[in-house]
Write a structure and sequence with these properties.
Structural class: mainly alpha
Order of helices and strands: HHH
Strand content: under 5%
Distance between the termini: 130 Å
Number of helices: 3
Shape: elongated
Mean pLDDT: 88
Radius of gyration: 43 Å
Largest sheet: none
Length: 117
């Protein structure tokens, strides 16, 4: 007869199972960190785009601020909005001519054409 076999798990098998479990755990942690990094990278890109847009808007507003502090702007607003003129100039305010009112006969003729009387 042959020698009896030892029934049980060897130390090498236990070590292998522990190593596989640790490897799976580390892969799960790594995958979670990669997913978190991707989400954070996307958020960073969105926020960077917002910052760039705000910088552009700030530049536009700074340019507008410099313009409204000029004499050219003040004069344009005074002429356009306040209808002002420089000394010696004549300010002209144009108005539209009133539209002619239809006569009673013309409106009656129209009504008769529509109604048929």
């Amino acid at each position: 007869m042959s020698a009896p076999r030892q029934q049980g798990i060897s130390a090498q098998q236990i070590l292998n199972v522990v190593m596989v479990a640790i490897a799976i755990f580390l892969l799960a942690v790594l995958a979670q960190r990669i997913a978190t990094s991707i989400v954070l990278w996307r958020q960073t890109q969105v926020l960077q785009a917002e910052v760039d847009a705000q910088r552009t808007e700030t530049g536009r507003l700074e340019k507008r601020k410099r313009y409204v502090q000029t004499d050219e702007y003040v004069e344009a607003v005074a002429r356009r909005d306040m209808k002002m003129a420089k000394p010696g100039e004549v300010a002209v305010i144009a108005t539209l001519a009133p539209a002619p009112q239809p006569t009673g006969a013309a409106s009656r003729d129209w009504w008769e054409q529509v109604v048929g009387h």
